[in-house]
Structures are given as structure tokens and as C-alpha cells.
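Suppose you are handed a protein chain with no further information: no name, no annotation, nothing but its sequence. What can you learn? This example shows the usual starting point.
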Amino acid sequence: MKSVTRIAPAKINLGLDIVGTRADGYHLLETVFQAVSICDRVTVTLTDAQGITLRCADPAVPCDEKNIAWKAAAKFCEAAGLNQSVEIALEKHIPMQAGMGGGSTDGAAVLLALQELMGNPLSQEQLCQIAVKLGADVPFFLYGGTAYAAGIGEELEQLPPFAGKHLVIAKGTAGVSTVEAYREIDSLQKPKHPPVQQLRKALKQGADTAEIASLCGNLFEDAVHLPEVAEIRRIMLEQGTLCSVMTGSGAAVFGLFNEQETAEQACEILKKHVDFAEVCETL
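A reasonable first move is to predict its three-dimensional structure. Written in C-alpha cells, the prediction is:
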């Protein structure tokens, strides 16, 4: 049996705005994705068993067609015209319902692993077409790094890397339903849109961390009202973060720090208040 194991990094949204809605109901976004060093581990194996199987030790993770990783394998085999048996093993470290793309990055990892295992039967364009059908975040994870995205996530522009920056990411026990978060976005009256285009320009110009931090923002913060999010942001700001911003549709919050030591101190304080807090770096 042939296997490939891939590291599947999480992401944060340095900036995230919703700028409209398509006729089919999909929301149009503008965002800057940033890969981070918190990651899952995805192993894909070609087997003699029938169909697609998925294993994960976390009981909260669905191990059937509801999982994006499972869907990715099915759509890949369909697009490539293959009748292949696939086993997927997920080692989860990215928290769920956090806005960090845990399911999306696993799906992208499956697509890339199958490409390698099966001798690259699909073009990059075909991979991207599958990815966007799986979810708005999935195309980004085919590339990683730092990227601007528009449309429903399929219009990607790689940006100069914003790598090696110190982060703390924290999340409480509450999760956020993406569907409900978008419903709340639709009900906002005169929302204050974050400066995503300014952020995009600053990254292209190689701005320093402090300037980038001043431009980070997320429209979903106006729509998602969780006491834990507010508490995490308060603690991060008290501990000297350059910014404290919710990622995705929530409920994780990231803080950018100038120094590793300061980030570690903030993380230790956050661990006294929330279930998940981790120091990491941008990739």
C-alpha cells in the first residue's frame, strides 16, 4: 500500500470583509489569508478496501461524507476518472469552529496527497476547481503562505510572505456556526468595513509588523458577539499585543507580538481563562 503524509497548516485572516452577495446567495469576500504553524497531520493511503474510509481519534470529527477531507477524496477520484480505494487518517491539532480552516486545510492536504500518489493526473486548474467547490478557504491551502482572496475565495493573489511573526492564538469553549455568522452579517446596518485593500497594499510594499497590525480587522467581529472573544481580546491587549483580531467567522482570536517572550507570557495568562491558547508563527 502506498501512503503520503502531509502537514496541513491552519490559517488566520489578517483582514476579512464581506463586500456583497452573488445571485446564487454566496457571499463575496475580500480577505488576506495567512498560514500559521499550528497544523493537522493528514495521511492518505491507497488500499484494497472498497471506497473511502476516514479515521480520526477526535470523536467530534465526522468520519463520513460530511468531512471535507472525505469529500475531497471523492471529488478527486471523480475528476480523475479513477475507481480508487482511499484511506484517510487525520491527526487533529487545529481547534474546531475556530475560523482557522481546520476542515479546509485537511481537504487541501488530501487533494495534494492524491496528486502525488497517483502521478499528478489533474492540472492545477482542475485542482482549484475542486477546491472552490469544497469551500471558500480550500483553494488558499493549495498554496499557503500569504495571499489575498476575492470572489468566494477562488480569486487568489500570492503576496510577499509575512513569515516568522510571533502570534498567540486563543479560543474559548464556544464555537460559531458559519451559517449563523453570515446571517448576522446580512443583518448589519452600516457596518464598518476593515481596510483590506490598504492591508493588501502594505504587504506588497513590505510594511513592518506594527503597520500591518494596525490594518488588521474582521467584519465578523461586528456580527459575532461572544463574551469569550471579548475577554481574549482584552487580555491580549493588556499583555502588549500589536493587534487582537478574531479570525474567520470565529471564534479564535489572534494577537501579533513583537517578541517571542512577550507572546509566551501572554499565552500563559490566557491558558488560565480559556481551553485553547498556543504560541505559533506565521509561515
